[in-house]
Amino acid sequence: MTKTDKLLSVFASSVKTGGGIHTASELAFMLGEPCNTAFLKLLADGVKKEKFRRVAKGLYESTLTPPEPESAIYKIITKLRSNVLNYISLESQLSHTGDISQVVMDRLTVITKGRSGTFATPYGLIEFTHTKKTIEQIAPNLYFDPDIKMYRATTKQAIEDLKHCNRNLHMLNL
């Protein structure tokens, strides 16, 4: 079995257990390989041959066994900012709760304790907005959504975040 075939098998197994989006380091570890130049070339060649797809910088999925499209973007968020608090807020959360009439399409707004940034993925644009608020200030206004395996802001917190970021408040249904 070639390394590419082994890698495809690793992707297929991970999708069955709720995974499917992995860093190069994770993939190398699962194969028992060092994450070196040769391994990165294997990934790049697999992307060129359309066996794998690069979904964001340093993140990959299998084209044969991709993760569920509804949850893939949330997995990407978790991998991009894995060591800090992230939560769905701003327009995405207010659209989710029905507090704005617009449906946010192809964009997910996330508040993070990490760096701000925007990432284009095949599943939509991810917009990270940094907050200086402490976790103690934020935590009481968050809840865990088991469907996406991420935190979401309460309506109150999402509106506070909108105001703090100087975003458009005219669309609120309140």
What is the 3D form?
elongated
Output mean pLDDT.
Answer: 89
Give me the count of strands: 9
Q: Low-confidence runs (pLDDT<50, min 5 residues)? A: none
Give the helix/strand class.
Answer: alpha+beta
Strand portion, in percent? 15-25%
Question: Please, how many helices?
Answer: 7
Q: What letter string, H or E per element, gives the SSE order?
A: HEHHEEHEHEEEHEEH
The largest sheet is: 6 strands, mixed
Helix content: 25-40%
Strand order of the largest sheet: 6-7-5-4-9-8
| Rg, Cα atoms, Å | 18 Å
Number of domains: 2
Organism: Catenovulum adriaticum
InterPro entries: AbiEi (IPR059220)
Protein name: Transcriptional regulator
Characterise this structure.
The protein is of the alpha+beta class. Helices cover about 40% and strands about 25% of the residues. The chain folds into 2 domains: about 5-65, Arc Repressor Mutant, subunit A (Orthogonal Bundle); about 75-165, no CATH class. Strands 6-7-5-4-9-8 form a 6-stranded mixed β-sheet. A 3-stranded antiparallel β-sheet has the order 1-3-2.
Show the helix and strand layout.
Elements: H1 3-16, E1 22-23, H2 24-31, H3 37-48, E2 52-56, E3 59-62, H4 69-80, E4 86-88, H5 90-97, E5 107-112, E6 117-121, E7 124-130, H6 135-138, E8 142-145, E9 150-153, H7 155-164
Helix pairs in contact: 5-7
Protein name: Transcriptional regulator
InterPro entries: AbiEi
Quick description:
The chain is of the alpha+beta class. The protein folds into two domains: 3-67, Arc Repressor Mutant, subunit A, CATH 1.10.10.10; 77-164, no CATH class.
